[in-house]
Amino acid sequence: MRLKNLVAACIAGFIFAIGSWSTIIAGEAAVVTSRYLNIRSGPGTEHRSIFILRQGDRVEIVEQQGEWAKIVGELGGEGWVETAYISSVQSSGDSSSESEHSNIIQGLW
C-alpha cells in the first residue's frame, strides 16, 4: 500500500512539474492557439471585447493576473486574454518567419 501511495505521489509531482513548464511569464513572447481570440479591455469575460486575434498571431505578455494576461500585439494594440488560449514561444533570430502584418480583426464589437 505504501508503494502505491509513493508511486501516486511521484506521478502527481511529475504532472505538476510538466504543467508549470507551460506557465506564461510577463515579458515573454506568446502565440495565439485558438482559431479566434477575443482581446478584452480588462481581465475577465465581463469586460468588452475590443478586437480579435487569429491563431498564430504573436503577442508579448506585459502583465498577468491569475488566468488572464495583458498582451501587446504586433501592431501595438493591447488588451487582456485568457492564458489558456496563448502559448509561450521561443523567439528566433530569423525575421523571415515573422508575419508582415498582424491578423487583427477590428471593429467587430
Number of strands: 8
The chain-level structural class is alpha+beta
Q: Please report which band the strand proportion falls in: under 5%, 5-15%, 15-25%, 25-35%, 35-45% or over 45%.
A: 35-45%
Number of helices: 1
Residues in helices, as a percent range: 10-25%
- Major sheet, described briefly? 5 strands, antiparallel
Order of helices and strands: HEEEEEEEE
Sheet with the most strands: spatial strand order: 6-5-4-1-7
Report on the structure:
The protein is built from 1 helix and 8 strands; from the N terminus they run H-E-E-E-E-E-E-E-E. By secondary structure, it is of the alpha+beta class. The chain is globular and about 55 Å long. Residues 12-22 and 93-109 have low confidence and may be disordered.
Q: In terms of topology, how is this protein built?
A:
Elements: H1 2-21, E1 29-32, E2 36-40, E3 49-54, E4 58-65, E5 68-73, E6 78-82, E7 86-88, E8 105-106
Antiparallel strand pairs: 1-4, 1-7, 2-3, 3-8, 4-5, 5-6
Please summarize what this structure is:
The protein is α+β, with helices and mostly antiparallel strands and 109 residues long. 18% of the residues lie in helices and 36% in strands.
